């Protein structure tokens, strides 16, 4: 006797296919809605980051949650003082500062995570995420992550060039100066080693000759146990560069003296200092502007010529004077050249616009001078606020003694030459 069969079994595969198609179609429509919303400048994050909450009168807007914002400010403050994410996490946990999960649960706010036995312990990843979040500048940052498919649960970080940023959409919690200092500190992270904490200069020193970074070296057999060496020399590229060795103590002292001298001169001779920077920038800007405008003219002329060449190639193809294959190869080469030239013109025009804001940069440097007019030691905050990088030259023997030369590239104003003054 034949066993009884369920007639629905025959159409089950077709039902599954239809369900799959329906799920894909729903996912596609949801993505389209989210994309449109994100591109319009609205927040697509359902839960605001710690420090913000949705406006009760307009769910599309964020307002500052003062209690949560205080935690965010404390995290940034600790980073500016030189603490890394792991150290900050330990400090917050020790001081019983509520984690975002615990905080949201207490305030009865929506939370992506459930409370568990580890909820009260700060994680360094959470701290790092807060320190890197541009939304604390008051911006809306959309499309920072994505899913490979509607079936995937894990989100993947999107490259920064794919982010869509709308500035000044809500009240900032962190000012741009503090945020920029923190990013510079994060870029040159100092990890504790068996011999203790890395120098505060780690990641800021560069070889003046080959441009490579200076590496921190430590030797227990030397009196001067810490020194910087050119990374090119250390990687056995001795034919291309020399060691440029300089002790940590020497370079820190040189930077401290130069910085104190510059700040004192700028504070006591503000008009002369502004005059020095303005005159230098005007001369430099004129040279750069002239060269950039010449490059733009040459590039735009070539772009027009390429338009004519591509048009001529097309006419030859239509008239059977040129084969399809040869036309495609030639036109592709000319179009690539044209595209690169157009990108170059765009970059040059952007640089010209940036050069017009040099006076604003000088003003920002003066504000730093006023803020840090009297400092006693080199801290990560002082260094990152004032200095972009330091170039180390190879030591020279003068009158029987070796002399080190460094060049400090300051933020906003570049290298500064200060006249002697009493």
Notes on the protein architecture:
The chain is α+β, with helices and mostly antiparallel strands and 422 residues long. Among the domains are: 8-37; 41-186, Hect, E3 ligase catalytic domain fold (Alpha-Beta Complex); 282-361. Helix content is 49%, strand content 13%. The protein has 12 helices and 14 strands. The chain has helices at 12-39, 66-80, 85-94, 100-106, 124-131, 176-187, 231-234, 248-268, 270-318, 324-355, 358-371, 380-386; strands at residues 52-55, 58-64, 140-142, 145-146, 156-157, 164-166, 205-207, 214-218, 226-230, 246-247, 387-392, 396-398, 401-403, 406-410. It has a 3-stranded mixed beta sheet with strand order 7-11-14. It has a 3-stranded antiparallel beta sheet with strand order 8-9-10. Strands 1-2 form a two-stranded antiparallel ribbon. A hairpin with a 7-residue loop joins strand 8 and strand 9 (226-230). Helix 6 crosses helix 12 (380-386), helix 9 (270-318) runs antiparallel to helix 10 (324-355) and helix 9 packs antiparallel against helix 11. The longest helix has 49 residues, at 270-318. The radius of gyration is 29 Å and the shape is globular. The mean pLDDT is 84.
Helix content: 40-55%
Query: How many helix segments?
Result: 12
* Beta strand %: 5-15%
- Do you know the CATH topology of the domain at 41-186? Hect, E3 ligase catalytic domain fold
Q: Order of strands side by side in the largest beta sheet?
A: 7-11-14
The arrangement of helices and strands along the chain is HEEHHHHEEEEHEEEHEHHHHHEEEE
Distance between the termini: 114 Å
CATH architecture of the domain at 41-186: Alpha-Beta Complex
Q: State the major sheet.
A: 3 strands, mixed
Shape: globular
The total strand number stands at: 14
Unreliable segments (pLDDT under 50, ≥5 consecutive)? none
Class of the domain at 41-186 in CATH? Alpha Beta
Structural class: alpha+beta
Q: Gyration radius, to the nearest Å?
A: 29 Å
Mean pLDDT: 84
CATH superfamily of the domain at 41-186: Putative Large Serine Recombinase, Chain B, Domain 2
């Amino acid at each position: 006797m034949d066993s009884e069969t369920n007639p629905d079994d025959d159409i089950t595969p077709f039902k599954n296919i239809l369900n799959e198609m329906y799920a894909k179609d729903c996912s596609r429509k949801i993505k389209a809605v989210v994309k449109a919303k994100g591109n319009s400048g609205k927040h697509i994050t359902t839960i605001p980051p710690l420090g913000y909450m949705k406006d009760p009168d307009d769910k599309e807007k964020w307002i500052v949650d003062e209690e949560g914002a205080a935690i965010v400010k404390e995290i940034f403050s600790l980073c500016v003082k030189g603490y890394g994410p792991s150290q900050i996490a330990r400090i917050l946990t020790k001081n019983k500062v509520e984690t975002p999960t615990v905080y949201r649960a207490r305030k009865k706010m929506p939370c992506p995570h459930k409370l568990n036995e580890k909820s009260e312990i700060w994680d360094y990843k959470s701290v790092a995420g807060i320190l890197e979040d541009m939304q604390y500048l008051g911006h809306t940052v959309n499309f920072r992550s994505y899913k490979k498919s509607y079936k995937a649960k894990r989100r993947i970080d999107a490259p920064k060039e794919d982010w869509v940023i709308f500035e000044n959409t809500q009240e900032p919690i962190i000012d741009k100066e503090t945020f920029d200092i923190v990013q510079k500190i994060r870029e040159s992270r100092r990890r504790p080693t068996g011999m203790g904490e890395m120098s505060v200069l780690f990641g800021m020193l560069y070889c003046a000759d080959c441009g490579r970074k200076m590496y921190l070296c430590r030797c227990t057999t030397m009196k001067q146990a810490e020194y910087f060496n050119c990374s090119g020399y250390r990687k056995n590229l001795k034919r291309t560069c020399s060691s440029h060795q300089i002790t940590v103590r020497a370079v820190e002292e040189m930077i401290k003296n130069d910085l104190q001298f510059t700040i004192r001169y700028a504070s006591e001779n503000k008009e002369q200092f502004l005059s020095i920077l303005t005159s230098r920038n005007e001369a430099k800007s004129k040279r750069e502007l002239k060269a950039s405008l010449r490059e733009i003219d040459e590039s735009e002329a070539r772009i027009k010529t390429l338009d004519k060449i591509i048009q001529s190639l097309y006419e030859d193809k239509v008239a059977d004077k040129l084969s399809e294959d040869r036309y495609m190869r030639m036109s592709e080469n000319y179009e690539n050249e044209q595209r690169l030239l157009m990108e170059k013109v765009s970059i040059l025009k952007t640089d010209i616009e940036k050069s017009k804001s040099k006076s604003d940069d000088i003003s920002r440097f003066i504000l730093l001078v006023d803020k840090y007019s009297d400092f006693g030691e080199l801290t990560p905050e002082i260094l990152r606020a004032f200095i972009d990088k330091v170039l180390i030259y190879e030591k020279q023997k003068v009158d029987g003694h070796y002399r080190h030369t460094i060049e400090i590239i300051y933020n906003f104003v570049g290298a500064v030459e200060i006249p002697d003054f009493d």
